[in-house]
Amino acid sequence: MRILVLGHTGYLGAHVAARLRALPGALVLGGGRSPAAEVGVDLATARPEDLAERLASAAPDAVVNCAGATGGDAVTLAETNARGPAALCAALSRAAPAARLVHLGSAAEYGPSAPGTRVTESDPTRPVSPYGATKLAGTVAVTASGLDAVVLRVGNPVGPGAPRTGLPGRIAALLRAAGPDPDAVLRLGDLSAHRDFVDVRDLARAAQLAVTAPGPLPPVLNVGGGTAVPVRDLVRGLAEKAGFRGRIEEDAGGSARSAQVSWQCSDITAADRALGWRPAHTLDDALTALWTATAGRPAARRAEGDAAP
Fold first, then answer.
1. Which family does it belong to (predicted)?
2. Are 58 and 29 in contact (CB under 8 A)?
3. Which residues constitute the domain of residue 13?
4. Which residues are catalytic?
């Protein structure tokens, strides 16, 4: 089985590619802008006809699209998260219409939900940020393409390799910088928001199951932890792993998205039904693996951060 993983050098893509390479008989090709990519593509700029040529040469049985942007201005987000999947679907329709497409979406597509509830795939989508809106546009492009495709709508990934551009990786770096100093202070934004954290290794397993599952799949499947956890608990959990002896201070700052979306929790029943998937790792497992993996990284320069996950 030939599987093309787009965005294979990113945080999520690297875990997905590693999981797929363990499949017996699988040939995994890395796709993206990296010089090391076996299939060089830039979904943000490639014309569908040029992309179709590259896909035809790769002849994939399945494509997993892990490429995406989490930061940047609205134009950058739109090019990568909305135009990219649309161009990919157009190219696949020409070059490999029988290939299964597994696309990584985001729980940010849902927007605000009522505290104490779990959102299902059929609930309304009301994203409040350019990120969520562009990810939703990518999801619509995939689900309307007519391809054998599924969107995995991912919660907040956490685990080994988490980048400093996201909250878990940033907090881990700040804790490394602080060390055991009892006078160290981590000044963070408001940590009261609830988020649905999922171990990145569980996400990779969900992607593997989506690639290999027989028959058509539902158009969208939630992939999360299935539990809403206060962001404060994640920070304190990492601080415990670090043996942090200083002080954590919250102020009224933080991201606008945290203020607008104070509760996020996904119903993962459909993924269990369609793929036989449920999380195998707890949040504590994920934090332990994240902290262990940061041991070889250079420490952050100062003990300050933003609360936004």
1. Belongs to the NAD(P)-dependent epimerase/dehydratase family.
2. yes
3. 2-158+199-223
4. 131
